[in-house]
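My current task is to audit a protein record that another person submitted. Please read both lines and tell me whether the tokens look consistent with the sequence. Do not assume that whoever made the record got everything right. I have pasted the whole thing underneath without changing anything:

===
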Amino acid sequence: MFDKCLGCGARLPGDARARGQHKRHCAKMKTGALAQTLRERHAEQARKRELREQERAEREMADAAQAIEVDVLAGAEDGPEILPPPPPLQPELPQVSSRGRVRKSTIQRFKDFLPTSYAGPSTPQLAAAPAEPSREPSPAPSIPVAALQAEPDIHSPCERSCTPSQQNPVSPNPVSPVSRQVISSDEPEPPLPTSESWAKHRSSTTAFGLYRDFPVKPKRDPEEEEKTIHSVCDPTIFGLSEANQLRGPLNPEAHDAGGHDPSPNPSLDHSDFTSDSPPPWAPFPNVSTFDMLYWQYNSSNTKSNAQVNLLTRCVFQEPGFDITHLAHFDAAHEAQRLDEYIEEDNASPFSAKDGWIRGSVNVRLPKEGVCYVSEVEAPVFTVEDVWHRSLPQVIRAALQRPGMKNWHMIPHKLFAVRPLEDPVSSSPSPFPHRSPSSLSQSSSSTCSSSTSTSTGTGLSSSGLSFSDGEDGIRVHTEIYNSDAAIEEYDLLLAQPREEGDPLDLEYSMSMLCLYSDSTRLTNFGSASMWPLSNYFGNQSKYERVRPSLYPAHHLAFIPSLPDVIQDVYMKIYGIPATAAVLTFLRRELMQAIILLILDTDDFMYIYIHGQIVECGDGVRRRDFPRFIIWSADYVEKVLLACIKYLARCHCPRCRINKDHTIELGTRADIYRRNKIREDNDDVVYRITLARRWIFEEGMPLTSVYLDRILGDLSLTPTRSAMSNRLREHGFNHYSLFVPDFLHEFELGVWKSIFTHFMRILYAAGGDKIQEFNTRFRQVPPFGRSTIRRFSTNVSDQGKLAARDYEDRLQCFMPVWEALLPRVDDRITSDLTFDLCMFLSLGKLRAHVPDTLDSLDDAAVAIGRDVRTFANKTCKKYETVELPQESAARGRREARLASQGKSVQGKRGRNFRNFNPKTYKLHALMDYASTCRMYGPTDNTSTQTGECEHCRIKRLYERTNKHKHVSQIARHARRGDKLQIIHGRVNGWRIKLRAKMYQDKRSRAHGGEEPSAVPIIFAPPSQSSKVPMPGDPSEDVVGCSPELHYHIAESRRNPINISNWTFAHKGDPALKGFMLNLQNHILGRLANRFGPTHTPDEDQAIGEFAFSDRSRLVIHHGHMYPHQILRLNYTTYDLRRSQDIINPRTHGDIMLLSGHDPDTDGSSSNHGYEYARVLKIFHVNVRLQDSSMTAFERMDVLLVRWFRVDRTVRGGFKAKRLYRLEFTPTDDDHFAFGFVDPSDVVRASHIIPAFAHGRTDELLSQSIARDVAVQTQEDSDNKDTDFRYHYVNFFADRDIFMRYYGGGIGHRGNARSRAVDTAMDDEDITSEWPDVDQALADAQAAEEEYAQRLAEEPDALLRLVPEIAGGVRKAIFEEVQQHLRSGSVGGDGVGEMQELLAGDEDDLESEDGDGENLLGDTTQGGDEPLLTLDEYALEGYAPP
């Protein structure tokens, strides 16, 4: 047997010993003989490289001089000094061999940009290699402004076996690391657009191209202040929760490895505190008492190991804590001391009288047939124990908090700079391309102005500017930059200033966001609460969603109608109240409580004239409260809007008829929904007339005459409290009720469709349900509880949360594939994809016009899909109740039978049809307009309020369960006060620690004053979690958010590479393991120091010569395995988050892809590469004959590659997920390889294509399958692979935006998308006619009625001609008609109410609603799909 020597080219003998001797001799001779040749070659390459660098520097200097000359001619000041970049370090680099296989595609370098500049300089310096093998990843740089400009890719393509090792590459000319530059006082502000503009003040531009336009210049802008990276991090991921931040600022040098101060607690000096300046822990006698009480109220009720650790580390080890202070500690006494504490200072948050007040409200009791002179003469029922707070005092106390320094008191508009893109560039852009003509006009018209303001905005360095009169791209993120807040503030500025106010007194606006919803406090029993809370839209939504910061300000705890009402009613009238009367009283009680809040402490005076407040940020303002939104579910909204539940006009925002809901997205639907509800004179007159008939004429609440004047608009005879107080000031209370994404889409539209999908599977027969459940069990989880492991029986819905339905929708398409016939599968898959699009777009936390237009298009597509689904698919199957639905109906019937009431029901399952005529389907078209007006849906969703419910339930456990409302109110108030005191104590501890550290340094310097050393914040995750010796869980210490990735420093369990590969001999995953690993490391070293050798045309990329590999030394030939890779990334909305890559649970990753040679860089290039991580490890390497004098650590990922299946369509236009397959393990492909962790973009959620089955042809028995065994189904098929997989780009919103484009935080790394989001209006079939003439007639009739009502106020009475003969006579005739027809009376209404109301364990209706809290009898049920009737008016009701 002979072979060819890779060193000298001679033929090797067959004897193994002789072959080894020849190789060693050849290597020795080659090293000695060719050393001079290699040195000469490297010297020649270095000389050529130096010449190229010199020429490039000269060109840059010439370009800079020309730009400065243009600025001088334009009258600008001298620009900044431009220095040529230093020459890169050039070690002796290996050469590329002509042997090896050609890669089919490349990987593009990933640039990880931080949301802030806290990471330090953006130009990492190359430090000398340490003496011991170690790795310290350099921080991710702040984004260069030049990255906003879409430039061609200047980086060399890197093969999978030759990826770059530089973790955080930056542009050749990085900008200053300051990401938010404030214009100095001696320089002019950036010029505003020359055209007439709304803005009077423009802020500086951030590194991501964001700036803000204000109507007036604010005295203080929180966004202009320096912020740390922790302010934009997810606190639960990076260990930045409130509990972990108790330790305050530390200096690493003053603490041991565990983050604890080795010195004893210092003695406290109380001389600085007097009666005028109490200590920060007041009213407590010492700081130790405060620490104990704060720990009690801000920790879990369950004392777990984590809570005990928190007590010992964050309480007992705090500076100032003394155990002797707790000698006579009594928690109840200290809590009472806290309740009674008040400060006399008007600027103190404890000076406001915002405590709880015990009050009462009155409601009038009507009775049919009983007449009174007026409504005020009717009997009164008093509801006691109404716990509420003064709204003006709540606002004052909130504005005086120190934590409001981050609030935005002046609304503004947020914009993103439009990037100047090269139309011919192949580099993708995060925003749609503009026309070349507009680009040329924009770039030429603002050349001089952008340069003159470069110091303030940093725009000149990147060439990013906008033309005169042209604003940037509008960005919607928060309530304080929404159109609703801006409109309210514009109306405020239009009013004359209050007399006596100085001109420098800032007029601010408190943006009140109300939330109300009832909640059960226990799983068993009847204890419940109905809190009415207020959130301030001035506060960021990222803080409002954290209950630990106490963002919710409770205004009242709404009581339910007492059971004693029937006794009082019997005592007055002699008969019990009917169901209609009880429903009327519930509505009256709700409005009476709201009226009580609006009438407390002259709130209306403050609403008009404002109140002067010394705010917590040190600015004195006159503040005006304004109501922006009221978040509630549908049942709550109809109660607050005073409309009937699921009646003819079921929407609280418009007057559309329920029968027209199925026309969602058509022109007729858009016309109807534009007829919004208005609190006008017509509505007030209808309600006033109805109440007069009820109380003064004794008309029954169920009278047909009331329905004639109220039913056209689905009104109730209850006047809104908001209308009573705010209508005269031009306020339309219907505008408060925004759509609720949580209840109305996730638990509404999608839940109803999912339920009917299950009915169809049951109707299809066979093992469809079993196969459906089996597939869902094999769906892998993703992220930190982003998508959790599914239950064993997904079809049995049970009691699930909204997040469970969200997870099912995101993973539904691969599971549902091919369970139905082909036509039905296509229809249902299109519907599911559009629902996923709506979910992803609707839950975005930052919107641009492109995403809002796409959200509208998605709603239109859902309307078209629902009509197709209802007309074609649903008619093919005879669907019946699900087992759980049938069981729920049986429980209701049994409960009614136990009460002695007759129930007409049949045995077995009833037929159930799909019901598309629901309010929640109608609301889909309102989300985009709501986002334009109020910001993203997380501002309006009830999810924020549901988080507050969890805190209330924890407080309930602290009560004695007797009269729990008052106890919960006290506990909530104490927690609020403790939060304020905690801020004061934390500030005091910052100063104390700084003093301790300075004293220690002074003693170390012999009493001399040392130089100032900054006090930094130690990462709480590193100070509170210390890995124990021998602990197998190596990755306990968290990852700093400044790094792109983190792998543990542990060197336990080393693996000898040669022995390990020999033990798995024949495994295709380890074929050529050492060779490929050496090539990968050499490629990273070459890319780090800059390539100096250009391969010839006949040379391939990927494999290095034997002489080059012989220079690479791996320390001891060992690799060190790890379990977890923590991957940090910047989200589309400029937040910092983290993925965890674990080969056994979450092993799939995505990387940026370069140009594919097969597609020649065309638009069909997918944009990403996918791989499954098999092993995480690091090696310590050194390159001989180079500047590397010591071993350096390199982190490596062993992966198995996927490739995109281009035989099927995928993406947004095709409405299908991208399909992948494992790369074959033949000689022409690289099925396995190595990846630099710094090139990983994010984790990827890859779901098997269950419909295509498994195969054993792709790979033989290998370790590649051992790491992925997760479920029982995987264990049974461990020797096979799924033939295909799907990329779930709906896994979370950040991944979705990486495919869709438009993410602000993705600038510089965005991928182009080939998607046509324009959805043309569908071709209306004959079954859904769009009658333009009928719409015109309807509009004319409505205008005629409005004119008639204005000319003749009694025109409304024409709807009830029977009243002309007298109201009482008409009522008598109505009663006689009921008796003759045998209609049921009030008792029948009550029976109907009980039939419709279900148990707590019962499933919600198809509309997603639970029990009918109001008792309305107009609730919609399952009805056959109706065709569209003509657009005729009913009475005088508008269409």
